Structures are given as structure tokens and as C-alpha cells.
Amino acid sequence: MQTLTLPAPAKLNLWLHIIGRRADGYHELETVFQFLDHGDELSFAVRDDGVIRLHTEIEAVPHDSNLIVRAARKLQEQSGTTMGADIWLTKVLPMGGGIGGGSSDAATTLLALAHLWQLDWDEDRLAALGLSLGADVPVFVRGHAAFAQGVGEQLTPVDPEEPWYVVLVPQVSVSTVEIFSHPQLTRDSRPLKMRPVPEGNSRNDCQPVVEQSYPEVRNALNSLGKFTEARLTGTGSCVFGAFPSKAEADKVLALLSATQTGFVAKGSNVSMLHRKLQSLVKKSSV
Ligand SMILES: C[C@](O)(CO)[C@H](O)COP(=O)(O)OP(=O)(O)OC[C@H]1O[C@@H](n2ccc(N)nc2=O)[C@H](O)[C@@H]1O
Ligand SMILES: Nc1ncnc2c1ncn2[C@@H]1O[C@H](COP(=O)(O)OP(=O)(O)OP(=O)(O)O)[C@@H](O)[C@H]1O
Asked: 220 C-alpha to center of ligand 1: Å?
């Protein structure tokens, strides 16, 4: 039996502005996404009986609600294929961390199964299906760092610096819905007028309300903030800071290890999923 094993990388929101709220309650954002060379791993094997089966259950997420299963079933329905898949997940990314683990798992599933089922689907179609699963899925389908508008689906590729990051993982799960419905959330940031999108200092509009509701996140920001500028990603809980080398990032994480949990990872403008897919295509064309 042939299996395909692919990564599902994390993302960071390098900054995030909320510029409005749509009639359906979703918020209009401006944000920059960059990937991390750190993530989950998924393996796929085709079944010819049409069954979709995830063999690795995640605690607290029922099989049929898992974004991996939902992505596979949607692709199956919309493509009309009679094939199914066995899927195995190695979960590395924290859930509710704002680093997009579930969304990335869904995107990896879409790209893997489109390939294994030999569907003639282009990236636009996969990204549109991805958006119906979550606002963060399209950027993982596209696989390039991006300036995002709308709810995160209008993507313009960008190439920010690729530093090493310390990512701290406060031991709390932050609910995206709770933060987006918070009465004190800033929702009227001014849209950016500058092009190209400026690099460097900005802010995450979710950070003040997350810090207020979750003291663990405030602590993590204060701890990392002693070494570099520290910021929240997405709606949290994870916070990150950039360093010029792996050695410096490792040193800071070691110094914080008595009170904080986290990891070090390189920022990447082409996601490791897409790098792996490109290498597979090259191999098969040799
Ligand atoms: C905060 C970010 O991670 C930034 O990249 C994303 O905007 C969140 O993306 P996501 O986790 O894929 O979110 P979804 O699963 O689409 O939405 C979860 C819930 O968050 C709220 N939500 C989400 C995205 C958005 N732009 N506005 C919202 O108000 C909605 O109540 C929605 O029901
Ligand atoms: N494969 C999956 N991996 C993680 N969470 C999943 C998965 N499938 C469904 N979920 C559900 O989605 C919720 C959000 O998980 P996720 O890891 O994407 O959070 P996040 O990092 O905060 O994402 P985002 O940055 O997109 O808001 C989880 O709490 C869980 O209930």
C-alpha cells in the first residue's frame, strides 16, 4: 500500500489589524501570514471503498468534526470521486494557539487527496473549498507568505524577512469566537494605504483583550518581551519574538524554560508543505 506523508506547518500573524465587521458578524482583517518550519505531519493511503477514516483521534475533537475528516469529505462530495482514504496524524501543534494547526491539517488534506485521487483541481478551487472550512485554510493551500484582506482569503504574496522565532505556548486555549465577540475588541483600525506592505513594527488588535482575559498570555508576553519585541499571533494563545539566529533563539528559550513552554522555529515564506510537494513533483518527472 502506497502512503504519502506530508507536513502541516504552523503560521504566524506577524501583525493583525481589524478594520471592520461584516453583516454576517465576521471581521474584516488586514494581516501578514508567514509560515513556520514546524508543524503536524499527516500520512494518507487511498481506499477504493469510499470510506474516510482518520486513525488518530484527537482528544476533545470527535472524529467527524475533525477538520481533516471534514476537508476530505467535502473534497470527496464536490469532486464526485468514489475513492476514500486512511489518514494518520502526528499532532505537534497546540490547539487554540493561533498558529493555525487545524486549518493547516485541513489544507494538507486537500492537497494530498487532490493528488492521490488524481483530481484535476487547481489551487483556486481548493482554496475556495478551504475557505468554507475556515478563514485560515486558503493561505495554507496557497503556501506563500501573504498580506491578507477580507476575512483572510484575499491574499497577496509578500516576502518578509525569515528570522528565527521563539514561540511561547501559554497553557491555555483561547477561543477565537470569544475574542471576536469581545465588546472591547478594536474593530476600527484604519486600512493600510501603503504599498508595498510595510515590514516591521505594528500590532495585533486582538492582543489587548486576550491579555486582559488570559493572565498566562500576559505573562508570556512580558517574559519574552525582556529579550525582543513580543507579540500575539491570531487570537492567541501563542506569542512570538524574532531573533537573527537559531543560537540566539535557543538561548532565550532555555533562559525562559523554568516558567514558559515553547519552541524555536524558522520563519519561512514558502511553506514546508509546498517545498515537499515541489520535490515530489521533481522526483516523479526525472
Ligand atoms: C484570527 C485568525 O487566525 C487570523 O489569521 C483567523 O481570522 C481565524 O481563522 P479561523 O480559526 O480559520 O476561524 P474560523 O474557523 O473561520 O472562524 C471562527 C469564528 O471566529 C470569528 N471570526 C473568524 C474570522 C474572522 N475574520 N472574523 C470572525 O469574526 C467568527 O465568529 C467565526 O465563527
Ligand atoms: N485537526 C485538527 N487539529 C486541531 N484542531 C482541530 C482539528 N480539527 C478540528 N479542530 C478544532 O478546531 C479548534 C481550533 O484549532 P486550531 O489548532 O486550528 O486553533 P488555532 O491554532 O487557534 O487556529 P487559528 O489560528 O486558525 O484560530 C480546536 O480547538 C478543535 O476543536
From this structure: 23
Nearest alpha-carbon partner for 160 in 283, 249, 34: 34
Q: What is the pLDDT of residues 119-161, one digit of tens each?
A: 999 999 999 999 999 999 999 999 999 999 999 889 999 999 9
36 contact partners, CB below 8 Å, separation of at least 6: 9, 10, 11, 12, 99, 165, 167, 265, 266, 267, 268
Q: Are strands 84-90 and 52-54 parallel, antiparallel or unpaired?
A: parallel
Q: Distance from the CA of 236 to the center of ligand 2, in angstroms?
A: 12
What tens digit of pLDDT does each residue of 244-272 get? Answer: 999 999 999 999 999 999 999 999 999 99
Ligand 2, atom 1: closest residue by C-alpha: 102
Q: Is the peptide bond before 196 cis (omega within 30 degrees of 0)?
A: yes
What is the distance, to the nearest Å, from the Cα of residue 24 to the centroid of all Cα atoms in its chain?
23
* Residues in the ligand 1 pocket, defined by CB under 6 Å: 13, 25-27, 29, 31, 98, 103, 134-136, 151-152, 176-177, 180, 234-235
Is the distance from CB of 29 to CB of 175 less than 8 angstroms? no
Predicted structure pTM score: 0.96
Atom of ligand 2 nearest to the CA of 234: 25
